[in-house]
Amino acid sequence: MNLKQIYNFVARLNKRDKPYIIADEQITLEAGKWEGFLEHDHVLEKTIEIYTLPNKEGERVLAYTLEKKEEVWKTYLKVFSQSDVLYITYETYGDMVEAEDINKLQGAAYYLENLIDHVKNKLNFHHGDKVSHITGNERESWNSRAFQRDLDITNENLRTTNENLEATNQNLGLAQQEILNHKNTKDNPHAVNKHQIGLGNVEDIQQASKAEFILHKEDLSNPHQVTKTQVGLGSVDNIQQASKAEFNAHDQDTARHLTSTERANWNDKYTRNEIDNKLAALEMNIDWKESVDTFADIATTYPEPQDGWTVNVNDTDYTYRFNGTKWIAVSANAIPKATSQIDGLMAKEDKNTLDDMNSKKHTHSNKGIIDALTQTVINNWNAAYTHLSDAIKHITAAERNLWNTVSNKVDKVSGKGLSTEDYTTAEKSKLSGIEANANRYVHPNDANTRHVTDTEKATWNGKANASHGNHIPATQTVNNKKFLRCDNTWQDVTPGNIGAAALEHDHDSRYYTETEANAKFVSKEDLGAAGYGDMTKAVYDTNGNGVVDKAESVAWTGVTGRPSSLPANGGNADTVDNLHASSFTRVHSGSVNLGGNNNEITTTQFINLLTNLGAFQQPHWIARGSWSYASNQIITDSGFGKIHLAGCIVEVLGTSTAYTIRILTPTTSSGGSALTLNSEFVYINNGSSYSPGWRKIWTSNNDGAGSGMDADLLDGKHASDFLPRIGLTWNDLKGV
Questions:
Q1: Phi, psi of 173 (to 5 degrees)
Q2: How far apart are alpha carbons 132 and 465 in whole angstroms?
Q3: Buried b (16+ CB within 10 A) or exposed e, 172-196
Q4: What is the rounded CA–CA span in Å between residue 360 and residue 70?
Q5: Which of 134, 172, 584, 694 has its CB 3.0 to 4.6 Å from that of 138, i.e. a possible disulfide?
Q6: At a CB cut-off of 8 Å and minimum separation 6, what does 465 contact?
Q7: 655, 687 contact by CB (below 8 A)
């Protein structure tokens, strides 16, 4: 085993920008699955391709998933396939050398160093071994004696061979005699036993006779107590087996058995692996978006959708996909039930009804009668039904009875319109001349019932009602606040006269009598007597802000509620509500030079600068660096790049022993790092034993590639908890 196999070395790739490096790997699957890290780092996941043969040949495998591990620079892959070996190709922009790589390299170097020392020691020992090596003189001496010794050995071998031949001839003679003696011996001269002739298990006892064997053979009652295990049926239960008739009935049961057509149809279905690959291929064209509450929310949340965007609606649990023109429902539960006007799904009740109708389509009690119907019979029946339905040609039983019982009917006479009762044309003409709704009533015009003329009606309409008495009061002037009462008199409009309760005056009435106003308010004369001329609002509040513009000087002794004495510093109050200035936030400056000279400083130097500016003398101190690069300094050890303090807002909360510093950087900078612009940095120091350090706040201004803000969780879940966009497998479809 070589060092590469021992330490699993993989050639590392130098990091570089485009064009990226193309890498190939071969993996071996077990039980249809392989999982692990790809050999190289910083893989462009969208370039991963897996095939069953090298060089992107064979069948492409799409059943795989990607997972995020703590080693974010690595790619962890799970692949599912029936192939034993697969080939992966992908692009990468280089590897990261880890401590593990260095440890492996050091281990290999240590192993190699020990191996070299071991080999060197063995070589030195072997080189000094005088027993294992010969000298030059020994080599010449042995080489000169080799031929003579070979001759001696050959002569000795020939002598031995002659002796062996002589002994063999003697033995042959003896062997011939022994063979002859053995041939004539009949009492088992070799002491052959039953084991040698294959009867080792036969006991030396008397055997059964032929008759006894026949009786035993014909005894069918299991004379040897044979068990089912002995006859090879140890796994068969002692239960009754199906009869031939039952087996035939089962064999002919088409509901339980497949036909060749059914088997062909089922064999034509997709395999699970094929479904995985097709689902994965389909998933590549789907872009799942976050769900919304209603269908109307889709247009608001995703005003500019792209083809393939897929959204689930919470209130209906329908799934919609944008097809490039509009949102269409794609989930099975979004398909409506079918109606007489709309295609759709069939309800289970409708399916049961349809099955019942189909099973009974030729099952009814009068099927023989229906089968006997012909078109001729139907035509004759229709003609008969039409005749029978003619109410004009036929009379009802009531009509027949009525006509048969009329005794005073008038017979028709020729030349007469109706009957023998003469009805002349003159009478008909007279009747035709009468207007519609006319009658022959003549209104009487006697003393009791004669008509009233228009003049009489006008005169009567101008008379007063009898309830007004025998006279009409005099006419009143307009708007004199009087009304004509039922007793025919004019009255003033008062609560008593109109039958209402007297209204007592209150402030809600909004009107006062002169007496009430004089009792409640100061009159103009009263104000004049009090010298109100200098106390009008126009005089003491000229700007209308509700505050007296000025007042005459008042002696200190005339001020009520005054302190007993003023502060000794001449009026600069030492506290406000018993709080000193150190208890309040201090805005140090809207533009201050934070250090100057455009120097690069450390965090410790920055803290010293803030101390000199008095930042730790009150609980909250704030200042803004002047917009001058030359007048401010640069923090270099934040861990996120250089922070130029020009234009930055610096806040300090706390004391010199426990404090928090916040820095807001501007949108541009000269001398700082691009990654520190548009950002917020916080430094917390609660003492050296509590890990003081900087942190960068993630905002919409600094999000994006290279920000270093790779969020590890989304609502408490890792990326592996979500459905992948590509590489979808059967196991990913939970509940399917």
A1: -65, -45
A2: 168
A3: eeeeeeeeeeeeeeeeeeeeeeeee
A4: 68
A5: 134
A6: none
A7: no
